[in-house]
């Protein structure tokens, strides 16, 4: 049978196995996500954090349900529903709600600390859950990249100072997202990339609808056009379209390597915060950003160690 026949295509995995393809898809997802923190910061100026965190999921769930119905996707089976609930708890409910509440009292640059921690957290969960075995050099480069990203974000935000409740929320958001990313990346190999986030949104929708209605006790927010535009981006892109690319990249994998692409997200986020919100952009941003990108680029080039005994 020809390698290019349709039968061969349908018998192959849901996504390609080429690492470079996974990296490019992951980068596209990171670019989409890099606007999330600044736009959340804009939205919270005129809307309650509960409405933003839950409402954006409802918007995305409507789009997801329409896409699933229009394309007549098969329903998940058995344990896949439980795994979708884990994904939903991590990236549909946990990360959006926790970061939105945190950003009511901290800057977008400070919120970039969350993004700096995500790659290491996701890689760790991926290794535990997906049984990936990176070489020691991978972990060295990852540690250097994480330290560089943390220092970069902390310098830009003026440092943590004393530990505040917002910082605890951000740390909780990191853990939630890492679990959701890792489980979603594995599940995307079975259901498909956009199908995974779509089903997760549908699974979470009953709870998100209830929370959204609860946030509307005093009526719709009287927010500015900029706040509503930011909310629309969060619902359509950050919560839905961005995951098309991100989960496809994680599914192609190796997950522990593709996740390191997110080390460049703090650079992008703080750049957008400077351009859109007027937050300070200094030489430290340029130098720190280059260091983070170099570390991320080196980490994704390190190939997984072969299984022992091979």
What does this structure look like?
The structure is a single chain. With 310 residues, this protein is mainly α. Helix content is 75%, strand content 0%. It has 13 helices and no strands. It has helices at residues 6-11, 19-33, 36-43, 49-70, 79-102, 108-130, 136-157, 165-191, 193-215, 225-252, 255-258, 265-277, 283-301. Helix 4 packs antiparallel against helix 5. The radius of gyration is 19 Å and the shape is globular.
List the defining traits of the structure above.
disordered N terminus; 310 residues; mainly alpha; 13 helices
Number of strands: 0
Poorly predicted parts = 1-16
Structural class: mainly alpha
Please write the string of helix (H) and strand (E) elements. Answer: HHHHHHHHHHHHH
Percentage beta strand: under 5%
Radius of gyration: 19 Å
The level of helicity is: over 70%
Distance between the termini: 30 Å
What's the tally of helices? 13
Overall, the morphology is globular
Described by strand count, sense and barrel closure, the largest sheet is:
none
Give the rounded overall mean pLDDT: 81
How do you describe this structure in short?
Helices cover 75% and strands 0% of the residues. It contains 13 helices and no strands.
Strand and helix map with partners:
Elements (H helix, E strand, L loop, with lengths): L5 H6 L7 H15 L2 H8 L5 H22 L8 H24 L5 H23 L5 H22 L7 H27 L1 H23 L9 H28 L2 H4 L6 H13 L5 H19 L9
């Amino acid at each position: 049978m020809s390698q290019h026949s349709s039968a061969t295509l349908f018998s192959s995995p849901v996504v390609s196995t080429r690492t470079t393809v996974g990296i490019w898809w992951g980068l596209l997802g990171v670019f989409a996500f890099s606007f999330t923190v600044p736009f959340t910061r804009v939205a919270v100026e005129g809307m309650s954090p509960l409405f933003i965190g839950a409402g954006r999921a409802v918007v995305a769930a409507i789009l997801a349900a329409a896409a699933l119905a229009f394309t007549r996707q098969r329903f998940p089976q058995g344990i896949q529903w439980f795994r979708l609930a884990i994904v939903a708890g991590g990236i549909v409910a946990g990360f959006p709600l926790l970061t939105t509440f945190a950003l009511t009292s901290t800057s977008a640059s400070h919120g970039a600390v969350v993004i700096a921690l995500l790659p290491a957290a996701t890689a760790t969960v991926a290794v535990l859950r997906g049984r990936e075995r990176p070489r020691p050099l991978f972990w060295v480069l990852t540690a250097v990249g994480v330290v560089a990203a943390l220092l970069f974000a902390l310098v830009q935000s003026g440092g943590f100072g004393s530990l505040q409740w917002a910082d605890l929320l951000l740390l909780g958001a990191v853990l939630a997202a890492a679990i959701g990313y890792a489980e979603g990346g594995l599940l995307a190999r079975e259901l498909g990339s956009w199908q995974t986030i779509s089903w997760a949104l549908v699974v979470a929708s009953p709870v998100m609808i209830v929370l959204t209605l609860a946030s509307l006790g005093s009526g719709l927010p009287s927010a500015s056009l900029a706040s509503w535009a930011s909310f629309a981006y969060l619902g359509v892109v950050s919560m839905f379209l961005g995951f098309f690319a991100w989960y496809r990249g994680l599914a192609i994998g190796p997950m522990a390597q593709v996740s390191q692409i997110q080390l460049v997200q703090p650079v992008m986020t703080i750049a957008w915060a400077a351009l859109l919100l007027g937050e300070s952009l200094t030489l430290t941003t340029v130098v720190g950003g280059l260091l983070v990108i170099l570390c991320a680029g080196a980490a994704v080039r390190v190939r997984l160690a072969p299984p022992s005994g091979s």
